[in-house]
Amino acid sequence: MGLKAQLEAIIYAAETPVTTEQMAALVKESVVASGAGDEAEVKSRVRATLEELVADYGGSDHGIEVRQVAGGYRMSTKPEQHEMVRSFAKSLKPPIRLSLPALETLAVIAYKQPATVPEINEIRGVDSGGVIATLLDRKLITTAGRKQVIGRPILYKTTKEFLMRFGLKDVSELPSMEEFEKLVAESFQGELIPAEEAAREKDSPHPEEIAESAAQKE
To answer: What are phi and psi of 149, to 5 degrees?
Structure first.
């Protein structure tokens, strides 16, 4: 089996993006056997082959593509096939359901990160404690330490799950705020929770309690 076929199989089988380093470690033995002199050459061959694989799947005869997402490579649906696959995916598993306040809060964190709850509240003009708890629960945001000010409030940032959800390589690929709002609306279309459920977010545990609990589990 050639190197391209090996990398294609790894990326296809992986549930999360696979890094170049991970793939190089997996195929090292066979690449060395084919003539690679050292580890640096192994990685070089892997990178070059990945570029070929990306180009192969970039053709119009493929409905999926190989792209860099969240620090690694993964197979994903091409933009022109999103509606078809979104309909199929919704028939298989429950969607991530968020309220409009949660989506607004997610947007603030995405562009200001790392951000504290007081900073988010100031931008939105309302208390965001409940929706922060919701976003933590959905694994779209996580903690990023504490800000070195009085009270040392917890900082929040987006996660790899967030990058995967929106198909971003990293946060530097975030579009303009207007484009992001449109992207959010399309991604979560039909997945907004009813107003009465959104109201319950106000009664959710304080986000710092959830963050502390998650940290203890880790």
So the answer is: -135, 175
β-pair type (141-146, 154-158): antiparallel
| Predicted TM-score (pTM) above 0.70 | no
- Tell me which residue has tokens 């992207």: 183
Q: CA-to-CA distance for 218 and 215, rounded, in angstroms? A: 5
Report residue 34 as tokens.
């084919």
CA distance 130 to 201: 4
For the 100-217 domain, the top CATH level (class) is mainly alpha
The string of pLDDT tens digits covering residues 163-183 is: 887 778 788 888 777 777 676
Tokens of 166: 């929106």
Angle in degrees, 0-180, between the axes of helices 39-57 and 3-13, rounded to the nearest 10 = 70
Q: Hey, what amino acid is at 127?
A: D
User: What are the sequence ranges of the domains in the chain?
Assistant: 3-90, 100-217
The CATH number of 3-90 is: 1.10.10.10
Q: How far is CA 17 from the centre of its chain?
A: 10
Residue type, 177: M
